[in-house]
Amino acid sequence: MGCNCGGRGPRRTVTVYRLILPNGVTRDYVTLQEADAANRREGGRGTVVAVNR
Fold it and tell me: Do the Cβ atoms of 23 and 9 come closer than 8 Å?
């Protein structure tokens, strides 16, 4: 009987929140609140987008 170790089942989609700064730097955060707080620390000039991985 074959191994049922995974790898063949449905893939889970994980949403991360990506902060994109004006200088081109990107940072990923687990929650929107973390991304917003980081954006405020950087002066509020960045953009936060949701990304599915």
Answer: no
pTM of the model: 0.78
Q: Position of tokens 């790898």? A: 7
Q: Residues 34, 10: contact at Cβ < 8 Å?
A: no
Among the listed residues 18, 23, 16, 19, the one whose alpha carbon sits nearest the alpha carbon of residue 41: 19
Q: What is the pLDDT of residue 6?
A: 62
Q: What is the CA radius of gyration of the chain?
A: 16
Please give the pLDDT value at position 10.
74
**Which are the contacts of 52, defined by CB distance < 8 A and separation ≥ 6?**
13, 14, 15
Which residue, among 25, 18, 7, 8, has the nearest Cα to 52 in the 3D structure?
A: 18
